[in-house]
Amino acid sequence: MSSTNDKPDKPIITAKIDGFFLLFYDFSLFVLRFFREAFRPPIEVEEFIHQCYQVGYKSLALVTVTGFITGVVFTEQSRPTLSEFGVTAWLPSLVAIAIVRALAPLIAALICAGKVGSSIGAELASMKVTEQIDAMEVSAINPFRYLVVTRVTATTICLPLLMFYNALVGCMGSYLDVHAHEQTSLISFFDSAFTQVTFLDFSTALIKSVAYGFTIGMVSCYQGFNASQGTMGVGKAANISVVVSMFLIFIEEVIIVHVMNAIR
Amino acid sequence: MQHIDMNETVISIRDLYKSFGEKHVLEGINLDLHKGENVAVLGRSGTGKSVLIKIIIGLLKPDAGTVKVLGEEVSQLDDVALRALRLKVGFSFQSSALYDSMTVGENLAFPLKRNNREFTPEQIRKTIDIVLDAIGLPETINQLPAELSGGQKKRIGIGRTLILRPEIMLYDEPTAGLDPITSMELNRLINAVKERFNTSSIIITHDLTCAKSVGDKIAVMDDGKFISQGTFDEVFTGNEELIKSFYDYNFIQ
Ligand SMILES: Nc1ncnc2c1ncn2[C@@H]1O[C@H](COP(=O)(O)OP(=O)(O)OP(=O)(O)O)[C@@H](O)[C@H]1O
Ligand SMILES: [Mg+2]
């Protein structure tokens, strides 16, 4: 009796490239499955709220600190150049544009990829290798819906919130710095800050962070769900979740920026 | 003693084959489990016992052959039908596989809540109490799996499958790695489950004492095939080689 094996014995191109396409195909199926399962009842409300707490609330401190520092540092670094031309009054709007268009979406996403991606990857991978996911399967529970749908939805919803919060804290950091040097009031700082930021900038930031949140959730759940046996698989899943999420986030950044600039 | 109905087959396995790459694990398995019967599957480590029952529950797909559980062919079922079937089949993992972020009570409530949406919290609580009482561990309800001993974990794992009131139980090495006294307690638990919940069971083990005390029938597995099936006495009388190899194995442990 010969075994029926899915994998072709001879690679079509090279084993590595074949493997990449197989992985891509498998990941696409995983993403499709998310859309098939996500909108069907029953919804795991309790687990979803728990995940929002894990993703959102537990990242707040980190997002606050990094947002604040970004605002302050960016302001300080821009001031000399602007004052050379005698236009330090432009500082607020320059900072706001930089934060909303580029810094906040990326910083919030990279922090989440590091913090949330690794923890989701490791958690699901350890459930996989200790057969807890199989245990859900055999007790007639859909582990995809309980574990993956809740986590991906939570990251997709929480990341935009974290991003806007990050932007706000960044602007506050910038305001404190501007206030210390140029004695600008809070009202006039935000007045001039947001004259240049358009609705399109906000929507782009929103679209970006939704995409990044979805990416982080999807990639880490995929890595965890498909972890190989053994404890080695857990560390590997956590690590790859972060690396792949960050990589995809930068690629998406380039694509979204170009598409939105074409619309502008 | 529960009556074994030889006319009603609840699990029927025919010519089952399974390989992982080049490694042939199952090579022509045939087995019938009748209603009310406990079959003990004996075999050394690595002969494919866990693979066999994972195929029965549909966690792994066979390469060839058929597995019929309660009249339905497992590998042909879609997700919905498979889930409906799994409600009737309990599976206790070799590794217990308890959800380690949940307490014992939550572990038991997890499958119960999701498969009985209409249950009130009191009904859930009551069902959990009944099961914990049946497995003899009512005091552990608020403990985390990390705080339990290996034997306790095995019992909770069995309890978590019992809570759905399965007709068939599949036990993967219920006594592996336990001391003789705890093993005896688990054997007693398996027999009690059969009496109380009216189950038919397949018990995977490499422990002769366990096979003898829980099995109405013994099936001995070696190199991916059953080399002998029958009652304990039928299988082991006059088969010095076989019994010796198992006793040696059990002594070395
Ligand atoms: N998912 C898998 N991928 C590859 N090989 C596997 C897989 N699962 C099991 N095997 C192989 O199948 C063989 C049988 O494994 P199995 O777990 O069924 O043994 P077992 O009889 O249950 O042993 P034990 O008494 O130690 O539990 C082993 O050699 C193992 O390497
Ligand atoms: Mg095994």
TrEMBL record, chain A:
Leader sequence residues: none
Keywords, in A-Z order: Membrane, Transmembrane, Transmembrane helix
Transmembrane as UniProt keyword: yes
Pfam family, one: MlaE
GO terms, molecular function: phospholipid transporter activity
TM stretches of this protein: 12-35, 55-74, 94-113, 146-168, 205-225, 237-260
UniProt keyword ATP-binding, yes or no: no
Annotated Gene Ontology cellular component terms: ATP-binding cassette (ABC) transporter complex
Record InterPro entries: Permease_MalE
Protein name: Phospholipid/cholesterol/gamma-HCH transport system permease protein
From TrEMBL, chain B:
Organism annotation: Chitinophaga niastensis
GO molecular function: ATP binding; ATP hydrolysis activity
Assigned keywords, A-Z: ATP-binding, Nucleotide-binding, Transport
Every ABC transporter domain range: 11-248
Pfam families per UniProt: ABC_tran
Protein name from the UniProt record: Phospholipid/cholesterol/gamma-HCH transport system ATP-binding protein
Gene3D superfamilies according to UniProt: P-loop containing nucleotide triphosphate hydrolases
Keyword Transport annotated: yes
Source taxon at top rank: Bacteria
